[in-house]
Design brief:
The chain is α/β, with parallel strands linked by helices. The protein contains 16 helices and seven strands. The chain folds into two domains: 60 residues; 245 residues, Alpha/Beta hydrolase fold, catalytic domain (Rossmann fold, 3-Layer(aba) Sandwich). Strands 1-3-2-4-5-6-7 form a seven-stranded mixed beta sheet, with helices on both faces. Strand 4, helix 8 and strand 5 form a beta-alpha-beta unit.
């Protein structure tokens, strides 16, 4: 029985090549009479793409619609009774949750419930989840530095999910951004070396602001998608990106203890992945517009261990989650989107237990 995830991936693999200029086949070449007009259109469209790919254009667009209310949505939010908890157990760090890509603190709130119950003071950090990761890291740095000024001596433990681990490391492993008060970093499912799914991350934006959202009109949804970021973070998470290359070349922060949790509960078996690759090769070779890019998509799928059971959690592959210099790496049978949610399985319960053991 073919899994729903596999069917969706097959559909994506079949549709995406139709959008790629390089996918056009010789059989579909324009006639000579229409060549000049089409060339002008293509040239104009390429120019638009180049401008859109320029982060300065994206920042300009975001700044045009950004206002004070947007600023108030982001930042460090401390629990109301965090100081009471900190005074009752001064040896415990303030645990700050940093969410991931296309997420927010609410979606990951369950991971902090046992932490609070154990007496830890807690807080969350919210940020626009599709900005350049270095910008989000600078925001985190400013918030933690402000906290250090207001509460000298208060130690911090960062608990991150997914891309939140990259945000935290970009802060802590930069001498100028390091606030100096973080002593512990526990990263759950971090895409340390990126994720192949970043190549199709536009689908998650469509879901977040359009298909999976019930409130807001067209303008509100368009505006929120701009405020939230226009794909900068996804670009940063593509394996081999400039951001990841620079980040992973840095040394670990010697004042911080690192831990990484990685999951293996992806939804596609080895056999299903082979079936999908075979189906793509057989059908793509017979379809105009797909022939020239079938090989490229086969190469993409062959390296997409993020989706293979036992090799990834559905978003992050084991081989792309490890980090040089970090020996405390725990591999558990969890899925990427459920590991920080309510305890509804043994794997999630184990994540919470192991997290508490490392925070103490």
């Amino acid at each position: 029985m073919i899994s729903p995830v596999l069917l969706r991936l097959t559909l994506v693999a079949a549709i995406l090549p139709l959008w790629l200029p390089a996918a056009a086949h010789a059989d579909d070449a324009p006639t000579e009479t229409g060549l000049s007009e089409e060339s002008e259109v293509l040239a104009a469209s390429r120019e638009i793409v180049r401008e859109a790919a320029d982060y300065s254009f994206r920042r300009w667009l975001r700044n045009r619609v950004w206002d004070e209310e947007d600023e108030a949505r982001y930042g460090l939010e401390l629990d109301e009774n965090w100081q009471t908890a900190a005074a009752a157990a001064p040896e415990l760090p303030l645990v700050v949750l940093v969410h991931g890509f296309n997420s927010n603190p609410v979606k990951n709130a369950a991971i902090l419930e046992p932490v609070r119950a154990a007496g830890f003071p807690t807080a969350t950090f919210a940020y626009p989840n599709d900005w350049e990761i270095c910008e989000s890291a600078a925001r985190l740095s400013a918030q933690l530095k402000s906290l250090a000024q207001q509460h000298p001596g208060q130690k911090i433990a960062l608990v991150t999910h997914s891309m939140g681990g990259l945000v935290a490391r970009a802060c802590l492993e930069d001498k100028e951004l390091d606030p100096g008060n973080v002593t512990r970093l526990v990263m759950i499912a971090p895409p340390t070396h990126g994720t192949m799914l970043a190549h199709i991350a536009v689908a998650t934006d469509v879901w977040e602001h359009w298909l999976g959202r019930a409130d807001g009109g067209p303008w509100d949804r368009c505006r929120d998608s701009v405020i939230d970021g226009l794909g900068e973070a996804a670009d940063d998470m593509i394996p081999g990106s400039t951001f990841l290359t620079d980040l992973n070349a840095r040394p670990r922060n010697p004042h911080v203890r690192y831990t990484i949790f990685l999951g293996t509960c992806a939804s596609v078996s080895e056999g299903e992945m082979k079936w999908m690759r075979t189906a793509l090769q057989e059908t793509g070779g017979n379809c105009p517009g797909l022939r020239d890019c079938t090989g490229r998509f086969d190469n993409l799928l062959s390296d997409m261990e993020e989706l293979v059971e036992g090799k990834g959690d559905g978003v992050v592959a084991l081989k792309r989650g490890r980090l040089d210099g970090v020996d405390d790496v725990l591999v558990l049978p969890f899925g990427h989107l459920t590991c920080t949610g309510p305890v509804d399985c043994d794997a999630t319960r184990q994540v919470q237990e192991e997290l508490l053991a490392r925070l103490r």
